[in-house]
Amino acid sequence: xxxxxxxxxxxxxxxxxxxxxxxxxxxxxxxxxxxxxxxxxxxxxxxxxxxxxxxxxxxxxxxxxxxxxxxxxxxxxxxxxxxxxxxxxxxxxxxxxxxxxxxxxxxxxxxxx
Length: 113
Description:
globular
């Protein structure tokens, strides 16, 4: 049974960068649809990046296009989200998911001066 553990969140100033990691144990990430989601206070969870089973990113939310990049390291069985030019509205708990059935515990990202 796969388990997902996110890390890399924190407090960053507007315009700054963070790289989130989603490490999988117990099973592989390749061969499954995987994605990054986020949930801001008082809002519904939204999908922000989706990767097909063969590792191609097929979707970015309009709000993050050009600023966020999702990529995968198969050797490390880890999914990443590189976030640049962060904005206060990016503040949220970020989650990774495999097939939208297995979820990590989330990592908090706060963008504030």
